Amino acid sequence: MVKDQDSLDPDRSMWDFIAVELRRQRRARGVSGAALGRLIGRDRSIVSRIESGQIPMQLDHAEIIDREWDLDRLFTRLVKFAKERKSDEWRLGDLSEQEARASRVRMWEVGLVPGLLQTPAYARAGFSVGLVRDLDAAVNTRLARQAAVFDRDRPPEVSVILNWVVLEQPVGSSDIMREQLAHLLELGDLPHVNVRVVERSAGVHAGYDGPLHLLTVDSRDIAYADAPHGAGLVTDPAEVQDFEVRYDRIGHIAAPIGPSRAMLQRAMEMYQ
């Protein structure tokens, strides 16, 4: 079937997402289709066919675009991921669906409490500064995602590492922050949940590349990279191992559970 831009569905097809994102990136730079064609060594018609979803982007073209536009391997990752997904479905709900099936969840967060651990008030305060049009719906979706993980008969083992910034970055009022920190302490009391904190004194480390999730689903580890220009599930074993190594390095410098709880308690006192 011949596609055009109006028929693309980037919420369900990874290749459609790539096509739409390529056009967005090209226009944002003021680059013509002909100029992009010259960049990748092809004519303008190839660019047009990629952007209309008629043909898939080639990996070597993705690498050239990433390098020349300084995109930190954005299209390279997207193309590899699209090739791996034989069903060609890119559903934005994939993370929550995999969380609901996971037997183990590992999370690292740089600046905010992870969504799975947020109180309703904290979630609402966070959503209110973005482009969410229906706050109630967004909060309810987040709470449903939490329930799918924590309200199971056999909930997963959950290990969370927080950057110290998470404790000191106000989200909403002081009351909201106290409630959120108290919630983290309560979760940490559960036998299947542990929460640790990387202290300020750790300085710059591997975690500053961005937040990450590691999920064990059906005895297989997968990762989720939550980044502005390349968020998505990662299933390739070699790439997942890179995420696991980074998570382990962060864990090596995180405070143990006891001192981490003490930091959470001290942070609550800041919001009196």
Automatic annotation (TrEMBL):
Residues covered by the DUF5753 domain: 93-266
InterPro entries cross-referenced by the UniProt entry: Cro/C1-type_HTH, DUF5753, Lambda_DNA-bd_dom_sf
Name of one Pfam family that matches: HTH_31
Coiled coil location: none
Protein name according to UniProt: Helix-turn-helix domain-containing protein
